[in-house]
Protein 1
Amino acid sequence: MPFHTKNITCAAALLLIFLVTATAQNGSTAQIDEFVKAEMQRQHLPGVSLAIVKDGTLVYAKGYGYSNVEHQVPVKPETIFQSGSVGKQFTATAVMMLVEEGKVSLDEKISKYLGEVPQAWQNITVRHLLTHTSGLTDYPDDFDFRRDYTEDELLKRAQAIQPDFKPGDKWQYSNLGYLTLGILIHKVTGEFYGDFLQERVFKPLGMTTTRIISEADIIPNRAAGYRLVKDELKNQDWVSPSLNTTADGALYFTVLDMAKWDAALYGERLLKKTSFQQMWTPVRLNNNTTYDYGFGWGFAQINGHRIIEHGGAWQGFTSYIGRYVDDKVTVIILDNLTGGNAGKIGRHVAALYNPELARKAIADKEPEVTSFVKDLVQKLSEGTSDPNSFTTELHGEIFPARAERVARLLKSLGTLNKLELVERGEKGNFRVYGYQLTFQNGSRFLKMSLTKESKIAEIAFIDDF
């Protein structure tokens, strides 16, 4: 059933933006504006909406560029963007509400709520779906995004795909897992998950623009989504209406509504603190190691400052929310381009707002590891890295396709000019390192884990600063 949004009056909106901007008038805001505009040009972003929240209070909100290029409509803080996978945290919250009510159990097999499931799904629990450890995969390459499906048809399609591993063995991001959670919510409550969220989350928090996507409805301040094709801007790809309503990330919202959401996460208006704590605890795998993901949220840290965060990408939009919970600072970034890097903008804005949230070099007590990394980056760029440097499992994941993509990336970045150790820690039996790499044509954050035998067990080049 469609529902209608309420809009704050124009006068109230203007007053709000004036107060927010005035609150944040300091040296950092000029730097933030300069950086966002430069990054928009570098990423070819049509428009960006930004909000900074401190102690649950909105302190800065601003729009940049265009929400609609054809009509030259500027982005405002009231501009409505699509959530992408940032919407997963709302699905996870709905599940936890049902857990608190005793209607769902995290460690119950999902067959209790969904009915008959394939043999390969028999041991999947609700917790597995929430943490992306079920073994379920993503939408297959031959999935028809232009066909309308019923929930039963979507569930049947998902169940026809063989899981990649036994539940709990590994972490692997799965949109199908969260699609399934939305169907589970419907079966348990008798309500479409979007209606459940509207009644239990959006209305109580005054999130007046947040709702399930509907391209048919007339929605004031809605941004258009875009993609780049051979450096030419095109409108977003069209998908069927039903695939814009699934629980893996199909919401409309503004940065103003997301600021209200962030404020609510500090209290108990939605859930008990113990429930939030479960959502924000890294998942423990069957081998007793952990992965930095909870229920619809990922985890990181910079200089010991914890970040609870998530990004999203869907149909011409990308999004990011980063909550620096020790500092009670949150940055929200929404843009309207497929392939945009909202997370990079968000993390850099946080560092400009509070310099303690920027990565800083630390004492390098293992120069031999740093030398190994420098040599590794060079060999990866040349496509000559030694396969024996990697664990057997990682070798199978990297070679040849991923190694070829990494080589192309590193070549495009040019000469490595600077390499700094910025993180060092332990994770189970692994030594974990983080290096800030500065190249001729950009920068990357290198995250790497080594085994006791100094084999590379995990490696990623992240464009987030």
Protein 2
Amino acid sequence: MEKIRPLEKFRERLESTALAPLTRTGKGYLLLVLFLLAIVAWGGYAYYTQLQQGLIVTGQRDRISWGLYIALFVFFVGISYGGTLISAILRATKAGWRTPITRMAEFIAVAALMVGSLFPIIDLGRPDRLANVFAFGRWQSPIIWDILAISTYLTGSIIYLYLPLIPDFALCRDRLGVNGPAWRRWFYRVVSLGWRGIPSQKQRLGIALGMMMVAIIPVAVLVHTVLSWIFAMTLREPWDNPMFGIYFVAGAIFSGIAAIIVLIVVLRKVFHLEEYITSKHFVNLGYLLGAFTLIMAYFNASEYITTGYKMAGEVPFHFQQLFSGEFAPLYWFYALGGLVVPGLLILFPWTRNIKGVVAAAALVLVGMWIERYLIVVSGMRVPLMPYTPASYSPTWVEWSIMAGAFAGFGLLITLFVKVFPVVAMWEVAEHHEEEAVKVPRREALFLPDTTGVGAER
């Protein structure tokens, strides 16, 4: 009984902490929702202006027809891919420390993909013509492949988010349904699917999670590979690169890890999750971030060394605009602030802590946004014919829509934490109980043999 009581107390503390945001709403939360809604509304007004006047209100023209919108599309899809893949890989490797953070990673994937998938429509200018893509689209086009891949990926990500929520929905049904409003009782009763925690249900859930875990990894790789082909299958000098597939995949994981770190440090502070999300989680994620810092640095060096050695075609112009020309400040911030500095923060033990890892993650997010912007805009700026290179500068409409997108992403997460537990309570509790059982067994191995038949009994 003495060993059971600490486990029961741990479960009680876990449930109380995880369910508290679902039952209590403070003024700070309401003010945050209103603030985010105001920014989303301003972004909506900017988009309405674009609908009324056309793409002339943006900085895009005939020679630079892709700009901030497509850069944000790649950025958000990359974050979503990283969130899902990190969760799936950690589940596949049975990394026990991942239990408090996987749900946040899975929801990042869904929220980022929902926001990011809007940008091709925004960039289209005439959303009423979207139906033409399905009615008259050419199956040889990478754009059609991308639409199919993202639709499949979004469906899979929602299922992958929902399945581990079922036991926690049942817990919410039993703990919060009695005294809560009618809609809450109905919602948790429906989405819990009659979960009672019996062995047969646990077995089926384990099988379903295993199937989705195996399926979502190749789908996620396919999505960002196909997304890279929209660029790589053109004849533009900076994009005509067979490395783009793996380069985009690595960059997506890189930015996805950074987004997870930034989100969990905020939720950890706001919802008092320090007992469950410890410095170990940040250090482990920091190791992953550091590994992909090296991978991204390798891909950048490999690309620029091989193309720079030959200096064929328009490469000299592209290199000049990146390294010393119009985009030099952005490029060097990405190279130094987005790769070198985060790598050093992870490398040195005295900065490999919560503050250092979070600072590295924030720099990575800014750097990867810049990298996406440079891929799109600097690539479009390279002339296809002997004419004067065009310039591009986003207008207030584009900046406003971008602000609305980030606010919408934040709003989705803010609403999510009021309906769904941010921590997978059943997984955290099971992992804690497994660890509690292992510790006495490890200690027993070193007990003196006083019985003559071995100390481990």
